[in-house]
Amino acid sequence: MSIAILIGDPPADSALEDHLRALGFTPRRLEAGASGHVARAARALEGALTEVPAHVPVAVVDADFVGHRHALRLALTDPRFPAAAAPGVLLVRPTGRAALAAAPGEIAGARPGDSRLLAPDTPLPDLLAARLEEAGTTVHRPALGTLVAAVPRTTGERAAAREREAGVDDERVRLDSAVKSRDGFFTTFAISPWSRYLARWCARRGLNPNQVTTASLAVALIAAGCAATGTRGGFVAAGALLLFSFALDCADGQLARYTLAYSTLGAWLDATFDRVKEYAFYAGLAIGAVRAGDDGTIWALALGAMVLQTCRHIVDFAFTESTAPPTPASGTGGGTGGKPADPADPAGRAAALSGRLDRVGWTIWLRRMIILPIGERWALIAVLTALTTPRTTLVVLLVAGGFAACYTTAGRLLRSLRPRTAGPAAARALGILTDTGPLAGAVARLTAGRRRPGGFAAPLWALAAVLLAPAALLLPGVAGAVWTPLLALGYAVCAGLAVAAPATGRLDWLLPPLFRLGEYGTVLVIAIHASGADGGWVNATLPAAFCLVAVTAYHHYDTVYRLRGGAGAPPRRLVLAMGGHEGRVLLVVAASALWAAGGAGLTLTLVIAAGALAVVVPAESVRFWTSSSAPAVHDEVDVPADPTADPTGSRADTPTDDPAGRRENGPGGTRENGVPA
């Protein structure tokens, strides 16, 4: 159990020690009256700290503290930070214990009149927090909003603080703060008003967020199974269960915020399971449609929906990485260098228009709905599944998703017209996202130094690759021709030329989504072409292609999550073993040319490739995310414990889902929220 060292004796009417015990701390009183003598209290604290094992978190609390239990909870129990503080309260975890051990001696030895170290009216925990920050330890200070956290010294001040405390419902603030401050329209108005109570119900029964996340996955898989029955009753049940799964998906994050039970594993499970749920439901729709009498081409729609959604996410991820702010490590990042928007250029006009629209509340909600975030998307899928056919559901999803993709991508392209240069950290992240394999890597090394960074050469080479595969494969008589591997080799050469220089250009963020489109699109086109041939095996080609793209997309999502956590790329040996995106394109195209007449060859190639990747990729991913070196992935900015700001205050064109996880669980990294998933 953690230790809470009280500086002084709490007043007789204080509930401070009860609050600390309820939060999992063992209170230890330092010495009576010490709270009024900073130097003496610091000397006593210096000795008391030596009695606490180094692996135990320590809280230092002024005995005169008055405030809500939730204010203490926010300062003392959030596991994401090495140190945290509120007025009169300081929590230091083992990683910061060395700095804490040195701080009391510095304060006790301060010269009289040194207000920086020896301020009689300042609580000792506040002085310690300041010293930790000066020593380089990051001290998190949670936004408390209307929650009370004060250290009154007089009877009148204490009475006033107690009155303010009584005027705020601690539990209501805690429950409201469990809901994300910015989310989609459907989630905000149809799910969160009641899912927060579901989260509290789970908390009171001892359930943790990971268990709720797993329950959400189980419900979604049952929904996919219902859709796979191909009956009207099954479709209705699938729609209802999918909505309930989404409610649980919201509740797991709300439970994490309600209990401050953040974890690296939880964020990874949440982000990964979201993808598994949605794509499994696409597969369930396709299976159900075939069982209901639809032809096997429904799998092309399911695969197309998965390709579209994954490419949308990669656009969001890549653009976010390219505009990342400067980091201490790199010294520079993306962005525009803090320059104001020029109303004379297209990017400036777009920013100005967005700003004007932000002042009209309903337009923000409309734009959030247009980008089809996860809540709106799942609601659309659920309603259409229950009321129409799987083919109608997938066609509408493709149309709506395509429009949303055009809207968000156009906005990013306009913003990219503003002159800027991505820094080394952003360029490195974009390079990792390209998933370059040995073939393109060899071309890049051979041509290194022949192309200057920046400009538009990189995206043009990437576009050329996409024109070779899959675009050229759409031409009559091309797909399946014996010479089509030459197109795949051309794709690899163009991909290598695109990454031959660091991705510092203003449009270089387009490289990862273009390569995803090239790879996934090639698999889709080849599978559709093969399914048009005669023979029993071709009926399994599209489902096999669906599985191959699904496991490859998992690898690409996993790469994104690692980048967001600051862990860098997956092991290079994994990328090389998978062949890179250009290697997989060559494999699929070569297989289609080799078995152009039909038969089992192409289907078996897809099945073997999907099976091999399904063993290697998840195994490495699970190993990494369950290891102690796995990063925390922070998914939200800090907001007050009682968010009273206008809920429409976020940009409407940010990413649509929450692929990085609906739980914020680390102080570093970026987030995709209210941002697309």
UniProtKB/TrEMBL annotation:
<feature type="region of interest" description="Disordered">
    <location>
        <begin position="633"/>
        <end position="677"/>
    </location>
</feature>
<feature type="domain" description="DUF5941">
    <location>
        <begin position="425"/>
        <end position="639"/>
    </location>
</feature>
<feature type="transmembrane region" description="Helical">
    <location>
        <begin position="481"/>
        <end position="501"/>
    </location>
</feature>
<keyword id="KW-0472">Membrane</keyword>
<keyword id="KW-1133">Transmembrane helix</keyword>
<dbReference type="InterPro" id="IPR045985">
    <property type="entry name" value="DUF5941"/>
</dbReference>
<feature type="region of interest" description="Disordered">
    <location>
        <begin position="325"/>
        <end position="347"/>
    </location>
</feature>
<dbReference type="InterPro" id="IPR048254">
    <property type="entry name" value="CDP_ALCOHOL_P_TRANSF_CS"/>
</dbReference>
<dbReference type="Pfam" id="PF19365">
    <property type="entry name" value="DUF5941"/>
</dbReference>
<feature type="transmembrane region" description="Helical">
    <location>
        <begin position="536"/>
        <end position="554"/>
    </location>
</feature>
<dbReference type="GO" id="GO:0016020">
    <property type="term" value="C:membrane"/>
</dbReference>
<comment type="similarity">
    <text>Belongs to the CDP-alcohol phosphatidyltransferase class-I family.</text>
</comment>
<dbReference type="InterPro" id="IPR043130">
    <property type="entry name" value="CDP-OH_PTrfase_TM_dom"/>
</dbReference>
<dbReference type="GO" id="GO:0008654">
    <property type="term" value="P:phospholipid biosynthetic process"/>
</dbReference>
<feature type="transmembrane region" description="Helical">
    <location>
        <begin position="455"/>
        <end position="475"/>
    </location>
</feature>
<dbReference type="Pfam" id="PF01066">
    <property type="entry name" value="CDP-OH_P_transf"/>
</dbReference>
<protein>
    <submittedName>
        <fullName>CDP-alcohol phosphatidyltransferase family protein</fullName>
    </submittedName>
</protein>
<dbReference type="GO" id="GO:0016780">
    <property type="term" value="F:phosphotransferase activity, for other substituted phosphate groups"/>
</dbReference>
<keyword id="KW-0812">Transmembrane</keyword>
<keyword id="KW-0808">Transferase</keyword>
<feature type="transmembrane region" description="Helical">
    <location>
        <begin position="394"/>
        <end position="414"/>
    </location>
</feature>
<feature type="transmembrane region" description="Helical">
    <location>
        <begin position="601"/>
        <end position="619"/>
    </location>
</feature>
<dbReference type="InterPro" id="IPR000462">
    <property type="entry name" value="CDP-OH_P_trans"/>
</dbReference>
